[in-house]
Amino acid sequence: MADRDGLIWFDGKMTPWRDANVHVLTHTLHYGMGVFEGVRAYQTPDGAAIFRLQEHTDRLFDSAHIMNMKLPFSKEELNEAQRQAVRENNLSSAYMRPMAFYGSEGMGLRANNLSVHVIVAAWEWGAYLGEESLQKGIKVRTSSYTRHHVNISMTRAKANGHYINSMLALNEALACGCDEALLLDPEGYVAEGSGENIFVVRDGVIYTPELTSCLNGITRNTIFHLAEHLGYKLVEKRITRDEVYIADEAFFTGTAAEVTPIRELDGRPIGTGQRGPITERLQSLYFDVVKGRNEEFKHWLTPVV
Ligand code: PMP
After folding, report:
1. ipTM score of the complex?
2. Residue nearest to atom 10 of ligand 1 (CA)
3. Cofactors per UniProt (predicted)?
4. For residue 190, with 0-12 CB atoms within 10 Å meaning exposed, 13-18 middle and 19 or more buried, which class applies?
5. How far does residue 255's CA lie from ligand 1's centre (Å)?
6. DSSP tag of 160
7. Which of 6, 28, 85, 234 gives 122 a disulfide partner, CB atoms 3.0 to 4.6 angstroms apart?
């Protein structure tokens, strides 16, 4: 990733990719206290446009506020930084990574003289779980790792350190021949994937876990709007893993994962073991919306030029 051409927005300056470096004593590198976003820009008929830019920037600021980190830029400046990162790298579609982290002025948990730095990187990144997964769905395994308890790691924040738990779960699932992990909350109810929210469908109704141990996903929220648009009932409730086993359909959502069907959980096929019809309608509408092919949701797209 580091050795490539391009520019990274780094504390307000477009910096050559290879020069966008930090010191090994960077505080966030040691303790994981940082906040970030994952954002996508899509190619639309009017050029590259960022999907739900304001919501991602708002969540970055919420994450920083939760972690008591003062961001040295305004929301407007970071919106512009994201547009600039796509534009100046000549990308027609992109994955973007805004991140705020502490500098290297001090070490130890008590360090109180730390500067806050912000970067926005942008690069081309196709389907996170592979093109085929979007059609055929993925194999998922319930993790032996529990998702965060709200009073251990505050799950409204998208914080760097939270992803240790995600990586442990994902690596375990991959080692077992699956594509993704399903993490349960500390009480044993379904929470989310390592980097996705989960939905299940049963008898025509769509269900998703309440926001206790899972991230308030922007794609999750998008699905709420799209389900309403298509006339489906959507209910937030506690879900057990056996409810997923007997669901008619299940799918993951995320900026990176987009709308990815789940075809199997713990060796049990979900429904017919293929992408379900409601998943397919939502997925197809999702791609129309993000790619600017649907007039009704065009307000979610911010052109980069
Ligand atoms: N849960 C976790 C743990 C995630 O990392 C992500 C990706 N940001 C999501 C859910 C989905 O969130 P979003 O739809 O905002 O990308």
Report:
1. 0.99
2. 196
3. pyridoxal 5'-phosphate
4. buried
5. 7
6. G
7. 85
Q: Give the ligand 1 atom nearest the CA of 59.
A: 15
Domain with CATH 3.30.470.10 in the chain: 7-123
- The rounded Å distance from CA 112 to ligand 1 centre is 30
pTM over 0.95: yes
Is 196 touching ligand 1 by the criterion CB < 6 Å? yes
- Tell me if the domain spanning 131-290 has CATH number 3.30.750.24: no
Q: Which two tokens stand for residue 203?
A: 């008898």
User: Is the shortest distance between the CB of 220 and ligand 1 below 6 Å?
Assistant: yes
In which residue are the tokens 């109810």 written?
Answer: 189
Is 139 noted as a catalytic residue in this protein?
Answer: no
Q: How far is CA 90 from CA 31, 83, 122, 300, in A?
A: 35, 11, 10, 21
- Does the CB atom of residue 79 touch ligand 1 within 6 A? no
In the block, residue with structure tokens 């991602």: 56
Structure tokens at 253: 């959502």
CA distance 236 to 206: 9
Distance 196 CA to ligand 1 centre (A): 5
| pLDDT tens for each residue of the chain, 305 residues long | 999 999 999 999 999 999 999 999 999 999 999 999 999 999 999 999 999 999 999 999 999 999 999 999 999 999 999 999 999 999 999 999 999 999 999 999 999 999 999 999 999 998 889 999 999 999 999 999 999 999 999 999 999 999 999 999 999 999 999 999 999 999 999 999 999 999 999 999 999 999 999 999 999 999 999 999 999 999 999 999 999 999 999 999 999 999 999 999 999 999 999 999 999 999 999 999 999 999 999 999 999 99
